[in-house]
Amino acid sequence: MRLLLALLVPYLCCVASGGLRAADADGGTATLSQGKDTLTAANELALKTLLDGNARYVAGNAQHPNQDAARRAAVAGKQKPFAIILTCADSRVAPEILFDQGLGDLFVLRVAGNVADDDVKASIEYAVLNLGTNLVVVLGHGSCGAVKAAIAGGDLPGHLPGLIDQIKPAVESSKGESGDALENAICANAKLAAHQIATSDAVLEPLAAKGSLGVIAAYVDITSGKVHVLW
């Protein structure tokens, strides 16, 4: 528990709807209120690797690891990514860049609004069961157009209504919170997807319940590039 908090405190942001929150102004210890077992040591290390990579990216010191011909050859026959990232299809949110990782490091799922539909859950199940990846990070981002559309409401063409319907519960749950309504809804939407993954029956829920599968919600500020852990 102490190790987990030590890893997370520099990266936490305050979100009115709960979850992880930063240390108090007087230096008090951050609190963990996700109601689940703490991450395993392996998942703590995986999360630290992600956050360390993001810190390099934000500082302009990206190392661009595992992106050469030797790495390409090494992973051609087998992959073993250390983290699963579910994020938006937005062109400004590229996990390998944001976390300064390379080929074979991340199992990435991208869909508008980073929603956790059945196809996404199935893909996560594949990575967990077949690739041995046990940390899931749901990454929301600033100025998310899908969340904006869910807030705006109204008629939408094509398949968009089905997508937006998956985001509306987060919009409703964040209403009335202090601060920016869009940012609150984006954070709530990332936490909603994380909760849906952690409670997905048959495969993921039993693993999350016993602590072997870690599920984290996070938010990236697209102006600074910094990733904040939410839950």
Low-pLDDT runs of 5+ residues are 1-37
What is the number of helices? Answer: 9
Average pLDDT across residues? 87
Number of domains: 1
Helical percent range? 40-55%
User: What is the overall silhouette?
Assistant: globular
CATH domain topology: Beta-carbonic Anhydrase, Chain A
Order of strands in the sheet with the most strands? Answer: 2-1-3-4-5
Query: What's the total number of strands?
Result: 5
CATH architectural arrangement: 3-Layer(aba) Sandwich
State the separation between the terminal residues, measured CA to CA.
14 Å
- Give the biggest sheet: 5 strands, mixed
- Rg over CA atoms, rounded to whole Å, is 17 Å
Q: Can you identify the CATH superfamily?
A: Carbonic anhydrase
Structural class by SSE content: alpha/beta
Beta-strand residue percentage: 5-15%
Name of the CATH class: Alpha Beta
Q: Could you spell the SSE succession in H and E letters?
A: HHHEHEHEHHHHEE
Describe the structure using short key phrases.
9 helices, globular, Beta-carbonic Anhydrase, Chain A, five-stranded mixed β-sheet
What do these coordinates show?
- α6 packs across α7 (160-174) and α7 crosses α8.
- The chain is globular and about 50 Å long.
- The protein has 231 residues and is of the alpha/beta class.
- A hairpin with a 6-residue loop joins β4 and β5.
- It has helices at 2-8, 41-59, 69-75, 95-98, 118-131, 145-152, 160-174, 181-198, 204-210; strands spanning 83-87, 106-110, 135-141, 214-220, 227-229.
- The protein has a single domain (39-64, 80-229), classed as 3-Layer(aba) Sandwich (Beta-carbonic Anhydrase, Chain A).
- The protein contains 9 helices and 5 strands.
- The longest helix is centred in the first third of the chain and has 19 residues, at 41-59.
- Residues 1-37 have low confidence and may be disordered.
- Strands 2-1-3-4-5 form a 5-stranded mixed β-sheet, sandwiched between helices.
